Amino acid sequence: MKNRILTLLSFILLSCMPEEELPMKDMGEISGYFIECYCKPGEFYTLNAAKVSPIHEIIDLNTPVNLDVSIKADTIIKLIPTFSPSFLGNFRHDTKFNQFGLDSLYLSIYTPEKEHITAKTAIPDHITISSYSVSKETNSVTISFQTSPNPIQNYYIYSVQARKEGAGDDNLLKKETSYLDLSRHVGGTTIERTIKCQEIEEAEAVVILLLRITEECYNYQISLYEANSANQGSITSPVPLIGNIQGALGIFTCYTEDYKFVSRENFQ
Amino acid sequence: MGKLIAILLLFISISLDAQTVIVGKVIALSGEPVNRVHIYCIESEKGTTTDSLGLFRLECPIPCTLEFSHVNYKKETYKLNKSDAPFVITLRNKQNNLKEVVVTALPASGRILSSIKGIERIPAILGEQDVLKYLATMPGIVTTNALNSGIYVRGGNSNENGFLINNMPIAYPDHLTGILSTFDPYILNNSTLFKSGFPARYNSFLSSYINMRPEPGNKHEHEGELTIGLVSSALKAKGPIVKNHTSFAASIRTSYLQHISRLYNQSMNDKANPNYMPEYSFSDITATIDSRLSDKWRITAFGLFSLDHMKMKISEHVRYIFDWHTFSGNVNASYTPNVNEQWDFQFGGKNAYSEGDAFGSIPIGGGNRNYTLLGQTTYSRRFSDKLNLNSGIKFEYSQFETANKSDNSQNLLIKSSDKDFNLYELYLDITYYLNHHFSINAGGNYQFYSGETREHTFSPRAKINYTVNKFTIWADYAKTVQYLSLYPYFTVKTPIDIWYPLAKGTKPAICHQYSIGVNQEIGQLLSFYAGIFYKDMHNVKDFASDIQTEYSALSNHQIQGKGYAKGLEFDLSFNHHALYMRANYTLSESKRKFAEINNGKAFNPPYDVKHNVVINFSYQISPRFLLNTLWTFSSGVYTTFPKGMVIARNITEFNDDSPILIPVYTDRYNYKLPNNHRLDASLDYKFRSKDLLFKLSIGAYNVYNQSNPSFVYFQAESTDNLTKIIPKSKVMLPFIPYVSFRINW
Description:
By secondary structure, chain A is mainly beta. Chain A has helices at residues 2-14, 215-229, and strands at residues 19-21, 33-39, 44-51, 53-54, 59-60, 68-72, 76-81, 91-96, 104-110, 116-122, 129-135, 140-146, 155-163, 172-181, 190-196, 205-213, 249-254, 256-263.
């Protein structure tokens, strides 16, 4: 009887959220470039650049952009268009980013319209996961790490992926992410954080990822998250993307990363 | 010179076989209650007098003949044939040329009166009768979204309405969504909404004032009510504490929707893609005490406490917990040395608290609280048949606290936005009756605000009224000032939004409203009202778009701009025997302009409803059956839709470069939603058994299941590398049937 009532209830509740298709309207002109450049120590310099697409038009990922891109590290590195089929990484240079001796990076882009796009980023210190545990009992992952005495170094992204064997999206059971602003913690302390994930009970492995990011990157990631959430059927207020590039939308930043791959036999 | 006094009687009745308890109110044309009017029922030879609130209660058979007499007004008689319609009765006085008692419709002179009978003529959604839901069916007042519990008056924002009990401000006891009731008409059965021509005593909110007067209770015998609905149940009682001297009225209500949600969530089998229901619960307690200490002294006390809790689980990782509660209380001591004078001494307080914890991607924890202490003294005097005066002084102290929990494990609290202010107020209102037809009302309200900024403001008020036979025309002007603004957490008004006082360097919001209205009665059946208004607003507040992080509530990005609202209103009501109909239409436009929003261009705020139509039809099929229907239509409001689209990289993907489609929001309120319309209907069946009166209501919200959009989003459809965006809307409240049961004793 109870099950029948609950089935009826779930039918009523699920039928309570119908969807309707609405007409697309001309939302007006939008212009400018969208630039994303994440520099990670030990990886090649890559940059994504595209024109911002008006929402009422069909978006073509293959539309090439013609930009003059350079990054100033210890020397000036000129990034070259790759014409890759994917938009991601459509400008790159065969030099790996080495953070040694550097405290900042500078981006300079000239557009065909002779506009100058610029940005500057700090380089966060290296980050290490001090300890970690994956619990089968509570379906949770707990890590600890040391914060920096310098408040501007205390922005993090902590992410957990529950996976089946193999790479790729098909084998991803669930990913949970926490964006951490620990900038108000004074002095270096050990922080412990736990992410619960129901899918751990059926996962073959868990990937733990901890990023140390800049304050600008933290704000940008939150704005990406909120812009996305505003479209996920929630009532979150939409916000513009909050980046650090002068003359374009997007982000130019560095981050450091530590990760752990934990296979099922090492779950506790 | 003639005396032009309108006495408005709002009758409500509860059928008790041949005897009917008539509860009425006697007020003057100015809206002020008339104290010590003698009401005498010729048939039963019973009588009573109105109290200082103009209220009376009399038990007599129907039909009956009522006599109204007062030392300052001419004695009148009125034959009451039935008791189930809302009456507005104008009595002629010694020098008035009115020839007969006139029954009129309710909307007049920029104010709307509500009565329990009017509230019972609209369908009670989910069995929840509510003062606000009734007021929202009146011209010039709109609601926008089923998720939104706010009402919007004449193009103003929902946070620009002042809610008062006995003329004292209260904390708004906000429950979730617009379909749950907020103010119980069992206790708050005499409410007046002022949308223009505000008396000088009302200030500190721009758009409207809703003043509710609690039921004085039954000083002779005990009575009660039990209501059982799908969402909540309520137990209510009123009666004497000391017979003929002191009475009480109280209501307690609690919900049980959370138990159904919990059962549903526990039975969730699909753990991979769970679709959890929010576990939402609410309770409230409303109570009032009324005591006549002597012929000259009377004390009333009122209290309202509301408590809400909501737990939402998106996944094991992402969870939200919200708690909020409000308390408002006030005590009013009235001293009436003679029939021409009255003193009121009032003090009270209000408190609103909300707390939220978000676990998951962006862990946020914190709470905010504000509390206010109030004191007020008013003095009213009738100097002659031509001249009335109302005056008063008021003091208010308010404190606002916002705290954020930055780290759950260390419970580190950051409390950096404590703010407070003092508000001193002085007001004076004079009503002068020039002759049989003309009256003039003029007044002013002076305020001194002392917080992070200091401001002196003077708000003049003026109104001129002309009445001939059953036709009335009036024009008014009012300046209002507001010091508070509401920081919205979401796109719709929610109970956890945060009130902020004036930020340093900002000015109070100001509204100048000009309004003209006419009212024509045709016999006792038909009433027609038409009004036109224009509002000019300066320094209105909003908040700059910013990301919401752990500390966003602490950084107050208050911005100020200007705006206007203009509109036309029409209302036609028909009331004959068993049939009651009302139809109204509002045409309005509202604009706001901020340098920081939409590049300084004026925009239509999300509560700008251009066309609004309400048709209320109620038919008493038999003494036992009552059919109520309410059809509403409103133009679509503006919402925010992305203007562009970009492809971003997700750096939290491990060894994976899956791109994500990110909308680019630039302008606010750039997409007009489709129009809304729906029909609500209910059928009430009443029957009596011994001393109990039973009422069974069955009904439905959105009878023909119209897909009224609650919010808009988009879906991307991709083929090869080409992506097309399709806007879609979600409908939160389609057809919802309900049943409720009520027992009165």
